[in-house]
Prior knowledge:
Layout (H helix, E strand, L loop, with lengths): L2 E5 L2 E4 L4 E8 L7 E7 L6 E6 L6 E3 L7 E6 L4 E6 L8 E8 L3 H4 L9 E2 L3 E6 L1
Parallel strand pairs: 2-11
Antiparallel strand pairs: 1-3, 3-8, 4-5, 4-9, 5-6, 7-8, 9-10, 9-11
Amino acid sequence: xxxxxxxxxxxxxxxxxxxxxxxxxxxxxxxxxxxxxxxxxxxxxxxxxxxxxxxxxxxxxxxxxxxxxxxxxxxxxxxxxxxxxxxxxxxxxxxxxxxxxxxxxxxxxxxxxxxxxxxxxxxxxxx
Length: 127
């Protein structure tokens, strides 16, 4: 079982950058694929990015692909989301998620139905 805690959210001007971090407690962090999702007011939660267990498979949503970078440090049980060129449309609560998933699937399909979720961190981008 994993407990996930996000940090690093806040208020930033359009064009700025933020780095989110997700700390995982529990055993076998390195056996989980990790992902970031977000939920804007009045909208459904949506996939942002995922990274496979060893980092070899990474996938992004189309609207963040050139601006966001996901990474992980298995020695520290951490996963990051570096966000650059932020836009007001990126305003949302960002959630860290974990799932045991087949590596083959992670090369082709955005991670779905995570096993574990964090509590979320608010990101607000002002225009």
